[in-house]
Design a protein that fits this description.
about 100 residues; about 45% helix; two-stranded antiparallel sheet; mainly alpha
């Protein structure tokens, strides 16, 4: 993984956010891009979790985000899905340090 430089004006923050998301198992560039389109910063995602009306709603917040794969006639779309959505939600909201959060090692 390449080091991301962030300057004082914040240039590079989106790339850093994408790289952070790619640390999760089963999160590649397409999935990270889809999340960043909806939530352009970790703070935006955490605020959305806080504004959810229930724990279930929060844990499924990312589940229906479409992920575009490929280009042209080979392009396809899928959803992030509930399992990955739950893992990311757990990472950003869990306070128990012994919980396995499903990150790449």
């Amino acid at each position: 993984m390449n080091t991301v430089k962030v300057d004082k004006a914040g240039v590079g923050l989106l790339k850093l956010w994408r790289q952070q998301l790619e640390q999760f198992i089963n999160v590649g560039n397409e999935v990270a891009q889809a999340i960043v389109r909806e939530y352009p910063s970790p703070q935006a995602l955490v605020q959305a979790y806080r504004h959810s009306t229930s724990e279930k709603e929060a844990s499924h917040l990312l589940a229906d985000i479409p992920v575009r794969r490929g280009i042209g006639p080979l392009e396809s779309t899928r959803r992030i899905g509930p399992e990955l959505s739950k893992k990311i939600h757990l990472f950003f909201t869990c306070t128990d340090p012994s919980v396995n959060l499903g990150q790449k090692t």
